Fold each of these.
Amino acid sequence: MAADGEGTRRPAAQPSVPASAAPLIALLDRLAGLPTAPDPPDGPVLDWVRRQVLAALAASGVVPVEDHGTVDPARHSVVATRTAPSGQLRDAIAATVRPGYLWGGTLLRPQEVVAYVLPGEPEPDGTGRTDDVDDVDDVNDIDDVNDIDEVDKVDEVDEVCATGAVSEEGDTRHE
């Protein structure tokens, strides 16, 4: 006869999103938002810090999402649009505003993109918004991303990192 606990298998513990992921992603966002001069003296230092933070995230299994090609609503959030130079580019990613992040198969944050649309066509997410931008920097002028929006996005990543709660689609659960 087996002793108590012998012969029974415990289910493997589900790994959780590394606690360091949310603050490191927030740090990368802040570094990307720093004003830059044509040849800033601290450019190499900031670039080194960015590479080190990305390496720390990669060591934790968190990788950036910087896709090209067609917009995928499961992985991308369209924040602005640009008129497509040809019909073949319709619904393609024109530029990345902010990278997304994946941990394992879990989307921690979607990649924020500018998408190509045909003239007068609504945004791919169906909002009807048609902010035609020529430069990714214009997106910040259009959206005027304020501190509250940034905190909300960091909180979403924090929520996933703390709870590991994800929907079947891979996005964070909002209850």
Amino acid sequence: MNINNLTAKGRIKLSNPLHLLATCFGSSILMNWMPGTAGSLVAIPLWFVLHTLLSWPLDLFVIIFSWIIGIYVCHKTACDISIHDHSYIVWDELVGMWIILITLPHYTITLIALSFILFRFLDIWKPWPIRWCHDQVQGGIGIMLDDVIASIITTMILHISGLCSAIS
């Protein structure tokens, strides 16, 4: 079934807690011309709130828990709007950015911006294996997994290239 964005937007109910989470608190609907970017941007200040309040092990727990609930949240929202991995579903982008941010050795505007841009590039372009996961793995796991892989590749590029230590 081919459903346009207006129809999908009408099926998302921000009064539904699962839809609210899947859309990163409605950010993807508000910025509907670049919803994945909206979700990735929302992730950054939320990360700093979490990171300030919690220790590293608890940060890691929150990321793992967010990934696990994201599988259900994204799957249920996709079923509700009848579109697998619709662009308004951006919880996966939030978790992907958090995975990157937890691995950074320090936080500078330049390093965060570079991480964000590289992650968005990989998430949009979807080189192998990201594309394979996006196309072949269905349900909530598929929605979440391609962004997790994009975040792991982003992290590897930043660390192996030495950019994390070069940018201070």
